[in-house]
Design goal:
InterPro entries: Acetyltransf_17, Acetyltransferase_Eis, Acyl_CoA_acyltransferase, Eis_dom, GNAT_dom, NAcTrfase_Eis, SCP2_sterol-bd_dom_sf. This is GNAT family N-acetyltransferase. Belongs to the acetyltransferase Eis family. Pfam families: Acetyltransf_17, Acetyltransf_9, SCP2_2. The chain is an alpha+beta fold. Helices cover about 20% and strands about 30% of the residues. It starts with a strand and ends in a 12-residue tail after the last helix.
């Protein structure tokens, strides 16, 4: 039987070594490539160690303190679960389940509404109640095919200008632009100031050498940026951050017009993004790596449903099963004027679903009817799936590109 205990700052080295052993890797040297190591932002007071009966550390689990933007531009605190691993000698012995139960029980006890994670393997986390809630994709464009189509009559031309900076000189601008952006995009996570200061994570949060194209509006205010690097004849854009589609296109055009480049790779593009339709040649953009990104775990169903905004009015009775905790609840969701009430009910359900499926539809990235068609959600009458689709839809698909 393993012991699960919280960590302190004194456990950092043991925690990091155990985690890397679980993944068969070795810790890199702090300060390589001009930036900090990814674990420099760990919150040791929120991490867990699993100990074998002889006291050896055999598993790790951690959590970051983030904010998540919900539909309706509501921002709520969430735990970003991370650094989950079990050393190979102790796998399939219940260590992971024990850590997840300890962690989720603790998060519920803290009164948290949601937790989120990035899944290293898609088969692992659904059994703990997490569901894939956002996706992202890679877009590769050959420069010789990259001409934009002529704009339709009446389409306003994007204004402003682009300034080129180095990552080392643009940290404050990146932090400011990202923070404004993430408050407008459902599914986006905050990047706490300490992440930027420590260079924790992946570029451009990490301080690895990068060029940064900063877009400024007509008044000179930064309203977007693109972080990129060049390797041979391939220019790779880490991310384009802006809330404005025209600014996104202007920054993409800046990258596509770079000399001595054969192709441009955009690593993170939201699903159904309009960039692809800007090309005169629709086949100019090759979409690949369409993959899940943020997974959501609903910890408190009524509070989660009343926290987000809604576009349509209506009522829906949800019968939600949480097999990991052995819980089931039937909830009447009533939406009026963008706000929801959620109360217990004994009315017949419209939909029956697992809590992981609720996580998938919660941000609007997956239509409930899709999961009905997949056999995950049970619709109790013919109108139920369509009603749920209308309620859970969002103006823009959720997107998260923060790595943690």
């Amino acid at each position: 039987m393993v012991e699960i205990r919280p960590t302190t700052d004194e456990d950092l080295e043991v925690f990091v070594d155990t985690l890397h052993a679980a993944f068969g890797r070795f810790p890199e040297t702090p300060g390589e490539d001009g930036g900090g190591v990814w674990w420099s932002a760990l919150e040791m007071e929120r991490n867990l160690l699993a100990l074998a009966p002889d006291g050896r550390p055999v598993g790790t689990a951690g959590a970051y303190s983030f904010e998540l933007t919900l539909p309706g531009e509501t921002v709520v605190p969430v735990s970003g679960v991370t650094a989950v691993g079990v050393v190979p000698s102790h796998r399939r012995q219940g260590v992971l389940t024990a850590m997840m139960r300890h962690q989720l029980t603790e998060l519920k006890g803290r009164g948290e509404v949601l937790s989120v994670l990035l899944a290293s393997e898609a088969l692992i986390y659904r059994r703990f109640g997490y569901g894939p809630a956002t996706s992202t994709q890679r877009m590769t464009v050959r420069r010789h095919q990259s001409a934009f189509a002529d704009p339709r009559a009446g389409t306003p031309a994007p204004g402003g200008s682009v300034e080129l900076l180095r990552r080392a000189d643009g940290g404050a601008v990146l932090e400011e632009v990202y923070d404004r952006y993430r408050r407008t995009r459902p599914g986006a996570l905050s990047r706490p100031p300490r992440w930027w200061a420590l260079g924790a994570g992946q570029p451009p949060v990490a301080k690895a050498p990068r060029h940064v194209a900063v877009h400024r509006d007509a008044d000179g205010n930064p309203d977007g940026y693109a972080s990129y690097s060049l390797d041979g004849e391939t220019l790779t854009v880490d991310e384009i951050i802006t809330a404005d589609d025209a600014v996104f296109a202007a920054l993409a055009r800046f990258a596509l017009d770079h000399d001595l480049v054969d192709k441009v790779v955009f690593k993170h593009v939201p699903p159904a993004h309009p960039l692809r339709y800007r090309f005169a040649d629709y086949r100019a953009a090759e979409v690949s790596n369409d993959t899940d990104w943020l997974w959501v775990r609903v910890l408190d169903v009524p509070r989660a449903l009343t926290a987000r905004g809604w576009l349509s009015d209506g009522e829906l009775v949800l019968d939600v099963h949480d097999p990991f905790f052995g819980e089931r609840g039937r909830h009447l969701l009533t939406v009026r004027d963008g706000k929801a009430e959620c109360v217990p009910t004994d009315r017949d359900p419209d939909l029956s679903l697992d809590v992981s499926d609720l996580g998938s539809v919660y941000l609007g990235g997956t239509a409930p009817s899709t999961l009905v068609g997949a056999g995950h959600i049970r619709a109790h009458h013919t109108e139920a799936a369509g009603l749920a689709d209308a309620l859970f839809r969002t103006e823009r698909p959720p997107h998260c590109l923060h790595w943690f």
